[in-house]
Inverse folding.
């Protein structure tokens, strides 16, 4: 019984960590873009990007999880982040993954690149020769300029390109 309780606590903590980290970033995009339609959340690239980020944050927070536990984290955090109910995210994720959808895989790849920015440390950046403002990594994640810029490239720019309104969107970015 205690094993189940411990796993439940770990899942909740990881789900909360993913939502706490990603919701403010997504909300900034909502504000910049004047909203995000529900159709965006069913796009294979966006699915790969967000679900992979949820998984990365969960693993940073709680270590390894069983497939079932990771599914619960992804499903709950997806709803927390997107506000989309009963989206069928689990089925979509499995089908896109098994089908090796190129847009989905690109979203996963970009999530890994974004996670490097998200979890970068002062030492990592200085070691790479990146000029750094002392307070850059001390501010909340959503307020960091490097995070905003990377997210805008991974998320906002993709949405604008898919909307066939790159000029109107560019004004928002």
């Amino acid at each position: 019984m205690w094993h189940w309780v411990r796993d439940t606590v770990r899942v909740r903590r990881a789900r909360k960590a993913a939502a706490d980290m990603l919701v403010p970033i997504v909300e900034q995009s909502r504000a910049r873009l004047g909203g995000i339609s529900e159709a965006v959340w069913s796009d294979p690239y966006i699915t790969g990007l967000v679900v992979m980020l949820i998984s990365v944050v969960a693993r940073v927070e709680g270590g390894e999880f069983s497939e079932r536990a990771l599914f619960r984290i992804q499903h709950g955090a997806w709803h927390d982040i997107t506000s989309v109910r009963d989206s069928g995210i689990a089925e979509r994720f499995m089908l896109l993954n098994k089908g090796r959808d190129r847009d989905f895989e690109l979203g996963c790849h970009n999530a890994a690149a974004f996670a490097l920015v998200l979890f970068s440390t002062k030492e990592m950046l200085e070691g790479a020769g990146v000029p750094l403002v002392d307070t850059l990594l001390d501010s909340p994640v959503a307020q960091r300029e490097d995070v905003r810029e990377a997210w805008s490239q991974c998320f906002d720019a993709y949405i604008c390109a898919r909307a066939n309104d790159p000029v109107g969107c560019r004004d928002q970015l």
Q: What stands out?
A: Residues 2-168 form one domain.
